[in-house]
Description:
Strand 1 (57-62) and strand 2 form a beta hairpin. The protein contains two helices and two strands, in the order H-H-E-E. It has helices at 2-16, 29-40; strands at 57-62, 69-76. A two-stranded antiparallel ribbon has the order 1-2. The protein is α+β, with helices and mostly antiparallel strands.
Amino acid sequence: FLKNRVLAARDELLEMTDCGKASAIVSHLQVTRSMLSDAMGIPTGEMSLLKVATASVTCIDYDATTGTQTVHYQSFKPDAGLEISKDGAN
């Protein structure tokens, strides 16, 4: 499954990231949905229901001590002069 590969790659990145530091992942829709659904406890079969705007930013914080995942914002689309996405997610 794509989600399993995405989460494994995310975990590898987190292992390389020093505590208290940030990393960025630039991705396509299904990769973002995979990480969001994991953070929000949404089953794989329902992750397609997550709205993610084109050219948007999602922020998930990972606590290395507790394993807690916190979604700070999802599908944030800064005012950058972009048109409304065709998928209607924004």
